[in-house]
Write a structure and sequence with these properties.
By secondary structure, the chain is α/β, with parallel strands linked by helices. It has a six-stranded antiparallel sheet, with helices on both faces. Helices cover 35% and strands 17% of the residues. Helix 4 crosses helix 5. The radius of gyration is 24 Å and the shape is elongated. The structure holds iron/sulfur cluster. The site of iron/sulfur cluster has 9 residues, from helix 4.
């Protein structure tokens, strides 16, 4: 067996430490780095901090962009959601399946993670770790270098590919040992351990829920746009995304070709991306929202609309929507 492994790499301290612990043994390691669906379609992983941290310790990475296959899992996670729309157990299973595929392609001997037993409430409990391992058919191949000494030896340890004596037996929520190791390995920068991904964010989760329910035919750009602007459901079949600043306006306009209608003001105000079916009265509401966030004194009152069917219109904005009405429409 080759002294080669695949590591689930997040850029967090634990995955950096797991990498160092294995690389110090002379094991060739590939960090598998997942890009979640909220990333911009223009996102280049090379620019991210996670990649910078990996480069610093000499870890080479393979990037995997989570697309529709991943999102199908998020829509219906067999193990359910955490506090918000985060399907952590099934997400972990998905990541490990991809790592197992890479292990086979790369003829590597094991898959490693930076998991620490008992550190997180749901996905890192010992029983859950074992359940996940079984679900992905990696029994015996899944190595947790930071907690290995309190777990059954893996095949790589038994076969002498990984020296078990040089692994750790960390458990629990205290991070003391990890911080000591960080000092030992001179690791000063890493991604924050707090929080989780945007699926755990209450506001974003509400938007994800709305998208899944109201626009089940959504695409990856719709997922990215959940992170931009203010979102309002102005009719059961129609959602609008309202830019909050120049950067967001530019970003929304960039994806205008994927909108059912795009609205750009002549006055200083928000660009608005509409998704769904437009009916009578909807343009009036959109004008009222544009007015609420815009400034008619700077550039007049005209909102230019371009519809998916190729139609265009110059709409005259009138009264602004009041905040109570707006709040009721907020997603
Ligand atoms: S926090 Fe997000 S990325 Fe992490 S396991 Fe949960 S769903 Fe997956």
């Amino acid at each position: 067996m080759k002294r080669k492994g695949i590591l689930l790499y997040s850029g967090g301290l634990d995955s950096l430490l797991a990498a160092k612990v294995l690389m110090e043994q002379g094991i060739e390691l590939i960090g598998l780095h997942f890009i979640l669906p909220f990333a911009s379609p223009d996102y280049h992983p090379e620019e991210s901090n996670s990649v910078k941290y990996a480069t610093r310790i000499g870890l080479s990475l393979s990037h995997f962009r989570c697309g529709m296959e991943y999102l199908e899992m998020v829509k219906n996670p067999p193990h359910g959601y955490g506090k918000e729309m985060n399907p952590c157990i099934d997400c972990k299973i998905y990541f490990l399946r991809k790592a197992a595929e890479l292990m086979v392609r790369e003829k590597a001997s094991f898959v490693a993670t930076g998991e620490v037993i008992g550190q997180r409430p749901m996905s890192q409990m010992k029983n859950m770790l074992l359940h996940i391992e079984k679900s992905v058919d990696l029994k015996g191949y899944l190595l947790r270098p930071l907690s290995a000494r309190i777990l059954e030896p893996t095949i790589a340890e038994q076969g002498g590919i990984v020296d078990r004596e040089k692994l750790y037996g960390i458990s629990g929520r205290s991070r003391t040992v990890q911080f000591e190791l960080a000092r030992k390995y001179d690791i000063e920068e890493y991604s924050s351990p707090a929080g989780g991904c945007l699926f755990t964010d209450r506001n974003i989760a509400a938007r994800v829920r709305d998208l899944f329910e109201r626009h089940p035919e959504f695409n990856p750009v719709d997922m990215y746009l959940l992170t931009i602007g203010r979102h309002y459901r102005i009719a059961p079949e129609l959602k609008i995304i309202v830019g909050r600043n120049e950067r967001e306006n530019i970003e929304l306009e960039k994806y205008a070709g994927m909108a059912d209608a795009m609205f750009v003001p002549e006055f200083k105000g928000p660009s608005i991306f509409a998704k769904g079916a437009l009916n009578d009265g909807d343009c009036e509401t959109i004008c009222a929202v544009a007015g609420r966030y815009g400034n008619y004194e700077k550039g007049g009152t005209v909102l230019n609309a371009r519809f998916k069917n190729g139609g265009i219109a110059s709409l005259e904005c009138g009264p602004k929507v009041d905040d109570t009405t707006l709040d009721a429409m907020r997603i």
